[in-house]
Amino acid sequence: MAKVTMPQLGESVAEGTIGRWLKQPGDAVAKYEPLLEVITDKVNAEVPSPYAGVLKEILAEEGATVPNNAEIAVIETEDEGAVDGTASAAATPVATEAQPESEPEGMVQVEPADADAAAASASAPASGPARSDERAAASAANTAPTSVRSTTAATATAPSATAPSAAPSADGDPNARMTPAVRRVLREHGLEAAQIAGTGGGGRITREDVLAYVEAVRTGQTPAAPGSNDALAAGQPAATAGAAPAPAPRAAAASTNAGISFPAGADEVLVPMTQMRKGIAAQMTRALSAPHAYVQMEIDATRLVRLRETAKRAYQAKEGIGLSFVPFVVKASAEALKKNPTFNANWTDQGLLAKRRINIGVAVAVDEGLIVPVIRDADTLSIHGLNVAIADVAGRARQNKLRLDDFGGGTFTVDNTGYLGTNLVMPILNVPEVGIVTMEAITKRPVVVSTADGDTIAIRPVMNMVLGIDHRANDGAGGAALLRDIKAWLESVGPDTAIY
Fold first, then answer.
1. DSSP string covering 22-48, please?
2. Final residue of a domain: which of 52, 73, 90?
3. Same domain, yes or no: 207 and 252
């Protein structure tokens, strides 16, 4: 029998939580076939089976938090099955209690990189987090940014655990996804998944869906039917779902902020941290132990905007995905890192660990925080190659199909905060990396332009960029040199710049 152990999902990750088993005892498993979903403070990812054979035993149940390298399952390999005279495909399944599929809180939901692309093809994969070319107001009009969308709410007091007496018929999805915590709330109230209208991604049932159902029954209202438009609207902020549902005549809670409800008479409520927020808090505390320094420059984006505007429609028609500004900045960063190799490195207690490969992380907003999947060997990819790689990560993130190799091994990070309309952000390092650069909003500003006839004032699209550095590894002069090279590359693009 071969033992499956909990993998390490990140350089500083010590444990993982079993989100969902994709196979059950008795199921045949192919090598590298997804076996389970694991949740950590950094990533929610599918873990492939290291062996081919039959899953004989699950040693860690859904919801259990397990340290790295601990045994979580037993697989009878194909060789063992042949010796025992049993074919893996004909193995008798072990009877298990039917469990609805669960989906970890905080799975990535990445909005399209380009509003035009989103309108042109709703089925096209998302182009990643790149939206610095669009105004914040336009972003809100088209789709609410995922980084400011909160899908978790806290309540100071739980409703009665008594099962509702007038439950509607169970005509919903009995296998709707939910976390182990939500399944526990269902059991506490004597409910079934089929009774609840899931408003999360892909019909996922959230804690708020269950509590809203219980409150609706308690106050004598008709709960939203599974799959109805009311059910979908009820779980969305007003900015993305139109007008908020009218409050119940006897509502016990009044919501003053999307995702947070205050019980009647309460002036404050504790919002418990999710596992991701706990991990982010710990990581940020570690990161701020590094001495940060910052360098800021303005980028004249005239040529960059012109190139992208000229190429994006033909590119969209040919490739089926939008062309954002992010791959240009990643390319510029990769080229600049070649000239400034002390920034393509990790900091260790023994000193600077320089890296040969240029693996650039691209920050992606999720419901409860931020994750940084890595584009490996970014310096070897074209603008198109980088755009496809970012779109691929974003598309799989929306489908909860992130892989282990999407994380870890990063040497530098690009953080696109500009799609929210920011103009100056002081980023925190993604330690142990020693550099991170932000993309701010591209805005039109009056600038002084020198010509043969003298200086004149012109309106130009300008983007601020802020480089955060680990001052143990590099000084401000080195940071200015790196950012200067990024700026020079971006300002030099033109009609002859190769997209492919």
1. SS-TT-EE-TTSEEEEEE-SS-EEEEE
2. 90
3. yes
In contact, 434 and 458? CB cutoff 8 Å: no
Q: Is the peptide bond before 129 cis (omega within 30 degrees of 0)?
A: no
- List beta partners, residue 293: 469
Do residues 410 and 372 lie in contact, with contact meaning Cβ atoms separated by under 8 Å? yes
Examine the domain organization and report whether 294 and 422 are in the same domain: yes
CA distance 186 to 192: 6
Range of the domain at 436: 276-492
* Residue 252 one-letter amino acid: A
* pLDDT band for position 10 (cuts 50, 70, 90): low
d(CA 131, CA 128): 9
Average pLDDT over every residue of 134-145: 37
SS3 call for 17:
strand
Q: Give the position of tokens 């600077």.
A: 352
Give, in order, the Cα–Cα distances in Å from 313 to each of 127, 322, 331.
14, 8, 21
Q: Does residue 267 fall inside a structural domain?
A: no
Choose the weakest-confidence range: 106-120, 253-267, 448-462: 106-120
Q: Are residues 225 and 347 in the same domain?
A: no
Q: How far is CA 258 from the centre of its chain?
A: 20
CA 239 vs. chain centroid, Å, equals 20
> Rounded to an integer, what distance in angstroms lies between the CA atom of residue 144 and that of residue 60?
37
**Structural domains of the chain, count:** 3
Cα 228 off chain centre by: 27
Which residues carry out catalysis? 471, 475
Q: Is the pTM of this model over 0.85?
A: no
**Pair of tokens at residue 318:** 């040919």
Q: Which residue type, as a one-letter code, is found at position 98?
A: A
